[in-house]
Design brief:
mainly beta; Immunoglobulin-like; 2 domains; about 5% helix; globular
Length: about 300
């Protein structure tokens, strides 16, 4: 049996499904009561000074181009900034759901044919600028908009204009006027992004101290994988809060499996069995609240 350690909600991928990432970003930032101008000013960097920010192999040379002031955890999509001390979380959705690696990627290596983007924060003159690097597949996929998000609500919007760098990589940058903020690049406009039924494609970055909604359960699961002849996954509740069964959804490579435990209340020892799971599949256990926002409780990659 493969044991996964307990994970608080949002720790697995930091991604809220409903609200098109707004719940995730809002939870990460917390609330902010300050009044501020909502405008997002275009950054005045032109493409040429940033040419060396991308290597000849189409990899974003971050954090080198900011003199090593940040570290990147590729697996958890986390960026930790040294001076000033700050933490960032990168997230991605494709058509309103979890972005699979063969659909949309958030990483520094941009040479793949798959849509790939990376957002790199840079601190200068008392504010963070967000550099968005993307490959041709990403740039050409949609008419992209950039939104800033505060307290889960978009506060500004403008159309993205990419400048081509080299090796099939393009770039643009924004400097939001608010000190604490989140930035998302999306194929939806502001009004559509906020609609509950919206299913946009999104790449986003959140900046701030992580907070968690009080209603999100603290729970742990074990995953046990079958064999090649019996390609199942068993998910067992091993401790923590009880869960309402009809609020649990398993997302598995495009499949949506509602109430996988098939019980009213999921408590310690309850097991869900999911069939026809291929090796290498990505699995996410999501818990939906009454406000329809979904929070990831655990995730796993199936290896046999």
């Amino acid at each position: 049996m493969i044991r996964r350690t307990r994970r608080r909600a949002l720790a697995a991928t930091g991604c809220a499904l409903s609200g098109a990432l707004a719940g995730c970003i809002g939870g990460f930032l917390g609330s902010k009561d300050d009044e501020a101008d909502d405008a997002v000013e275009p950054n005045n960097h032109d493409a040429e000074p940033l040419a060396e920010a991308v290597t000849d192999g189409a990899e974003v040379n971050y954090p080198a181009f900011i003199d090593g002031d940040a570290t990147v955890d590729e697996n958890r999509r986390r960026i930790t900034y040294a001076d000033p001390e700050a933490e960032f979380l990168l997230s991605a959705l494709a058509d309103g759901g979890f972005a699979l690696t063969d659909t949309l990627r958030v990483r520094r290596e941009l040479s793949a044919d798959v849509m790939t983007a990376f957002i790199a924060p840079e601190f200068d003159d008392g504010a963070f600028t967000y550099h968005v690097f993307a490959n041709d597949s990403f740039v050409e996929d949609a008419d992209w908009n950039v939104l800033t998000v505060e307290d889960r609500d978009p506060t500004s919007e403008r159309r993205v204009t990419f400048d081509e760098l080299h090796d099939g990589v393009s770039h643009f940058a924004v400097t939001p006027e608010r000190e604490s903020n989140a930035v998302v690049v999306t194929d939806a406009d502001r009004e559509t992004y906020q609609a509950p039924e919206s299913e946009p494609t999104v790449v986003g970055i959140a900046h701030g101290r992580r907070t968690e909604p009080a209603e999100v359960p603290d729970v742990s699961f074990d995953f046990e994988y079958g064999t090649e002849t019996d390609p199942t996954v068993e998910i067992t509740h091993t401790g923590g809060d009880s869960l309402e069964g009809d609020r649990i959804v398993v997302h598995l490579d495009g499949r949506r499996i509602s109430n996988p435990f098939a019980v009213e209340s999921v408590t310690r020892g309850e097991t869900a069995v999911i069939g026809d799971v291929t090796e290498g599949s990505r699995l996410f256990i999501t818990y939906y609240h009454r406000d329809t926002k979904g929070y990831v409780l655990a995730s796993a990659t199936v290896w046999r």
